[in-house]
Amino acid sequence: MVSSDDAARQVEYETLDDGRIARIWLNRPDAQNAQSRTLLVQLDEAFGRAEADDTVRVVILAARGKNFSAGHDLGSEEALAERAPGPTQHPTFRSHGATAAGVAERTYLQEWHFYFENTRRWRDLRKITIAQVQGNAISAALMLIWACDLIVAADDAKFSDVVGVRMGMPGVEYYAHPWEFGARKAKELLLTGDSIDADEAYRLGMVSKVFAREELEDKTLEFARRIAERPTMAALLVKDSVNAASDAMGFTEALRHAFHIHELGHAHWASANENRWPVGMPPDVPDWRTLGAPKPARRDTP
To answer: Is the whole-model pTM more than 0.85?
Structure first.
């Protein structure tokens, strides 16, 4: 059942099957589950809650509404308030000539905490995790999905990262693209901003199962139950062994390197657009407008 403490929260937590399965819901459907910092904090709390519960064996990460997630929340009033003062709004930037260096330092520290370290921690959670994806999963949505051990998708799911082509970045902060798509497909998708559908994601090996949209929730739960039947220690040994193999092939070091390159992209954009967009976002980057959500306020400063 859903906890009363989770009412009206951006993340909901519930347990199923006598507590063996925990299901975490992104709960901002009106905002296409765009990831505010409040949502990310609550998501980390929910993952921690599942990890601390010895009864829980499998965690499902799902999302309310039409789309899994539109990525980082960069335009809502709530998100702007969470960032105030933002990197270019801070007195250090305005009064002491920090310019691009000030943006780079502040953005680096914030994104390391909220995006990079969070995602790495969720990847190594001491539970088996399954991402349940429907509709659009854009940019930072991929980070949440890729942190999970398994991904299942509705037949209407689409996956994309528009950061590279639109912002001069290599991609989002948790740079698993070459590992999830393969090297050449990663280059293609990042250079064009194109998306892939659920069937192509399945062929690439990123998605484990594709279900009809109307069956997604039930079929995902069935899938989770099969995994929950496995002995807990055996499941964790499988997870640790596969993750260790990826790390031995350079996965973690590649993530760390790409994060630094991503932040270099922020510094470059801040230098080129000084004192305009607090996190280096140009106004033409696709946002909720393409997903039917309210248009975020323009971020220019006087």
So the answer is: no
Q: Which tens digit of pLDDT belongs to each residue from 63-79?
A: 999 999 999 887 777 76
Is there a contact between 198 and 175 (Cβ–Cβ < 8 Å)?
no
Contact (Cβ atoms closer than 8 angstroms) between residue 149 and residue 61: no
Which tokens go with 79? 């998100």
Round to whole Å and give the CA distance between 102 and 239: 40
**244-253: Cβ within 8 A, 24+ apart:** 246/179, 251/176, 251/179, 252/120
Render pLDDT for 179-190 as a digit per residue (tens, 0 to 9): 999 999 999 998
Residue type, 56: V
